[in-house]
Structure formats: C-alpha cells, structure tokens
Amino acid sequence: MRKYLLGSLSIMIIIIIWTLYALVIDNQYIFPNPLTVIKSFIDLLTQVKTYSIIVYTLFRLIVAFIISAFLGIFLGLLAGNLKALDEFLHPLIISLRTLPIASIIIILMILLGRSFSLYIITFLMIFPIIYEASKHGVHNIPQALKNNIALENHPKRIIFFKIQLPLSLPYIRTSLFQSIGLGFKVIVMAEFITQTQMGIGRELYNGTISIQYERVFAWTIIIIIIVALFEVILKKIRKAYDIQS
Questions:
Q1: CA proximity to 64, closest of 122, 133, 125, 129
Q2: What percent of the chain has pLDDT over 70?
Q3: How far is Cα 170 from Cα 223, in angstroms, rounded to an integer?
Q4: Which CATH number describes the domain made up of 33-244?
Q5: What is the mean pLDDT of the segment spanning 116-122?
Q6: Against a cut of 0.90, is the pTM above it?
Q7: In the chain, N or C terminus with fewer CB closer than 10 Å?
Q8: Number of other residues whose CB lies within 10 A of the CB of residue 167
Q9: Are 98 and 92 within 8 A, CB to CB?
C-alpha cells in the first residue's frame, strides 16, 4: 500500500510542476499543459490508426528481438567454450556497447536505407547484452560440475544443448528481460531519426515538425504505458518461472 501511495504522490508532484511550468511559459505551442495533453492522449486512444502504429513498432521490435536472442544465445554459449571466438568477437562487442546509438543509427541509415536499418540497429543494441550473459552463464558453471561432465564423455551436442544451456538460463533470462525494454526505446529512437513511414518514432517526428507538442507528450505517455506493461508482464513471467523452479 505504501509503495502505491508514494508512487501516486510522485506522479502528482510531477503533474503540479508540469502545470506550474506551463503557466509560466504561457504558450500552448511551446509547452502544453497537462489538460491539453490528456485531451490529445484520449483522442489518440479513440483512433484505430494509433493501434496500427503501435503494432508496427512492436512487430519491428519482436523480429529484431528474436534474431538477437537466437544469435546472442548461440554465439554466447559457443564463446563460453571457445576462447578464440570470444577473443575474435570481443572488440566488436565492446564497440557496440560504447558507440553512441545516434551515430550507429545514422551510419546504418546511410548504408542500408530507412526500413531495413531499423531491425539492424535494434539487433546491434540487444545482441551484446544477450551474448555476454550467455557467455558468462557458461563461465559460471561450477568447475566440479564441468569436471564431472568431462568424465562422462557426452557428445558435444548434448553438452551444449542439454547441460550448458539449461545451466546458463538464469543469466540468459535476466538479459532477455533487460533487453526487451531497451530494444523498445531503441526502435522508437530509430524510427524518429530515420523518419520511417509508420511507427511511434515517426509520430513523435511528425508532432515535432508540425509544432503539435501536445501529440508528442501524448505519444510519450503511450510509450511510458507500453514500457510499464512490459515490466508487469515480465515480472509475472519471472514469478511463474521462479515458482516452477
């Protein structure tokens, strides 16, 4: 109960500060007040197009996420066993984790075009997280267990899929939970910068160039709601997994 009360209090404080600042600015075109934004938000919710736009963005995220998860887990587990592969991929992984997202988006947009680059950008942001987690999962298997596995002389395929993968799942699961939220934010940013034909990022761009900042704020609220729903769903999945374990 206390958590919900404090959370509600923080939201009220934000709305009060927002309202006061809007009164000081006194210009709806530059900084709309909360009431104007809420009206725009309700208007968006009543339009079928809004849900189509959300589906477009989520579809891009899901495609990039599935590819990132598959390659990240597979190569991460391999790198955990093969030091040469780990050393080969290390500079690439470090580069992807340190390069500014905006720079990668612009470079890939020039090289690959607007539409295809969205998937690659999201993949490049998510892949290193899942890859590193999968690799660490293998490295953190107890040495005594590794010795027992070696003595039993299992085929490498069995060791890889039936032993190492299940033992690495706690690390992999955490990375998947972390990367889905990051991926959503990246895909929206990529849509904004590349000005793709349809998507949440494109709507933010349209609202900016047409000076309809109330729509920018309204879409931002939708983004916050989607991210919050992600967190709720992932928490339920995590709890269900912990109960089964």
A1: 122
A2: 91
A3: 28
A4: 1.10.3720.10
A5: 85
A6: no
A7: N
A8: 17
A9: no
